[in-house]
From TrEMBL:
<protein>
    <recommendedName>
        <fullName>Major facilitator superfamily (MFS) profile domain-containing protein</fullName>
    </recommendedName>
</protein>
<dbReference type="GO" id="GO:0031969">
    <property type="term" value="C:chloroplast membrane"/>
</dbReference>
<feature type="domain" description="Major facilitator superfamily (MFS) profile">
    <location>
        <begin position="1"/>
        <end position="423"/>
    </location>
</feature>
<dbReference type="GO" id="GO:0005315">
    <property type="term" value="F:phosphate transmembrane transporter activity"/>
</dbReference>
<feature type="transmembrane region" description="Helical">
    <location>
        <begin position="277"/>
        <end position="298"/>
    </location>
</feature>
<dbReference type="InterPro" id="IPR011701">
    <property type="entry name" value="MFS"/>
</dbReference>
<feature type="transmembrane region" description="Helical">
    <location>
        <begin position="369"/>
        <end position="393"/>
    </location>
</feature>
<feature type="transmembrane region" description="Helical">
    <location>
        <begin position="70"/>
        <end position="91"/>
    </location>
</feature>
<dbReference type="InterPro" id="IPR044777">
    <property type="entry name" value="SLC17A9-like"/>
</dbReference>
<keyword id="KW-0472">Membrane</keyword>
<keyword id="KW-0934">Plastid</keyword>
<keyword id="KW-0809">Transit peptide</keyword>
<dbReference type="InterPro" id="IPR020846">
    <property type="entry name" value="MFS_dom"/>
</dbReference>
<comment type="function">
    <text>Probable anion transporter.</text>
</comment>
<keyword id="KW-0812">Transmembrane</keyword>
<dbReference type="Pfam" id="PF07690">
    <property type="entry name" value="MFS_1"/>
</dbReference>
<keyword id="KW-0150">Chloroplast</keyword>
Length: 423
């Protein structure tokens, strides 16, 4: 995992920096434009409309043209759309459209990164590879939450979108500069062999000439995808359900935590953002433990499927328990509520060694498409859950009731998912 791999990790770092900036900026934006919680939820959830739309196209394009080109186009798209937000913020249709474009640009990145991992990382190192790449999500959250508040307070909320949009363009330029080195590394990869995934899907390498394929080649390639086999597989349906359940809690917390800490715990913008840093920091720590734990079990002969189930069970049971405790009115001091939320969200990072490795385990060739399928369904909670949270807040005027309703829903889903994992 060398320099090019670090660049792949920075893709997800950029994604979360750009996502987190709105969760912080939405507070002063709501005050300026007089938005209620329902409107703020609509603005934040509109990102996931584009995110859901681009999952399968992103996976298909990554499979045919390779992850690097898809990543570059995605970065340029979401960076320009992010910089456009302050210009259209006062015009709701324009703001929603810009957020959809950000979602489309970011939506192709997970599938592209998955394709790169599946083709270049051996099974015994896959958990750590996924942890490094998708761990950039937590690192991006930390930096976004740390730097967004002082930027907003000193330069205005508009500046945070201009600055982070510019950072995305700079990343793209740096990524392009490594092109020659990456092409040299590819020559050393053994991509001429075919392999069979743990569920029997045959995978084979794609020629380096695939980047020159035409639209007709793309259509023919999509016809070769075993769609029927995917949707007849219990493992694929389990991944779809797991992705849906995990995303509901993750996206809801990602979007609303700074507002929760600001309103419920009476923290100012900077304090709320800094407290919101604790869950992603905890995720970084847990990921560094979970990834080698999973890889070592596999290297010592433990069945790969069993390892993935163990990790995913931990990723579901832990946040279900801690989030339920944080939602019940026990008269706890604020720091204990923060500790419960931090612990639950941090332990959910075991999913990087569970669900997020399973796509590559099943099929190297179709890993990006499989992630596109599950991530499309996983984006639905971002559309529905984030907006629903705002609606519940406006209806109940109570964070306790809103959190309790969400946690009861998640607890039911998590428990049913755990039972599926154990089958």
């Amino acid at each position: 995992m060398g320099p090019s791999f670090a660049k792949r990790n920075s893709v997800n770092f950029d994604i979360l920096v750009l996502q987190v900036n709105l969760s912080v900026a939405i507070i002063p934006m709501s005050h300026q434009y007089g938005w209620n919680s329902s409107t703020a939820g609509l603005v934040q959830s509109s990102f996931f409309w584009g995110y859901a739309l681009s999952q399968l196209p992103g996976g298909s394009l990554a499979k045919l043209f390779g992850g690097r080109k898809v990543l570059e186009i995605g970065v340029v798209t979401w960076s320009l759309a992010t910089a456009l937000i302050p210009v259209v913020a006062g015009f709701m249709p324009g703001l929603v459209l810009s957020r959809i474009l950000v979602g489309i640009g970011e939506g192709v990145s997970p599938s592209a990164a998955t394709d790169l991992i599946a083709r270049s990382i051996p099974l015994q190192e896959r958990s750590r590879a996924v942890a490094v790449v998708f761990g950039g999500l937590s690192f991006g959250s930390v930096l976004g939450l740390l730097f967004a508040p002082p930027i907003i307070q000193n330069l205005g909320w508009e500046s945070v979108f201009y600055i982070f949009g510019l950072l995305g363009i700079i990343w793209c330029i740096g990524f392009e500069s490594l092109k020659g080195k990456q092409l040299g590394n590819k020559k050393g990869l053994n991509l001429g062999q075919s392999s069979t995934g743990s569920n029997g899907f045959v995978s084979s390498a794609v020629s380096s000439e695939s980047s020159d394929s035409s639209l007709e080649d793309l259509q023919n390639s999509l016809k070769d995808v075993p769609w029927g086999a995917f949707f007849k597989s219990k493992a694929v349906w389990a991944m779809i359900y797991a992705h849906f359940c995990g995303s509901w809690g993750h996206y809801t917390c990602l979007s609303w935590l700074p507002t929760f800490f600001s309103e419920e715990l009476n923290l100012n913008l900077t304090e709320a953002a800094w407290v919101s840093v604790l869950p992603p920091l905890g995720s970084i720590v847990i990921t560094s433990i979970a990834a080698p734990f999973a890889d070592n079990l596999i290297a010592n002969g433990v069945d790969t499927t069993k390892v993935r189930k163990i990790c995913q069970t931990i990723a579901f049971v832990s946040p279900a328990i801690f989030m339920m405790l944080s939602s019940v009115d026990l008269g706890l001091p604020p720091w204990e509520i923060v500790a419960f939320l931090t612990s639950g969200l941090a332990l959910s990072s075991f999913a990087f060694s569970g669900l997020y490795c399973t796509h590559q385990d099943i099929s190297r060739e179709y890993a990006s498409i499989l992630l596109g399928i599950t991530n499309t369904v996983g984006a639905v909670p971002g559309i529905v859950g984030v907006a629903l949270t705002g609606y519940l807040l406006d209806s109940t005027h109570s964070w306790n009731i809103t959190l309790r309703a969400i946690c009861l829903l998640l607890l039911n889903w998590y428990c049913s998912m755990v039972s599926i994992c154990q089958q």
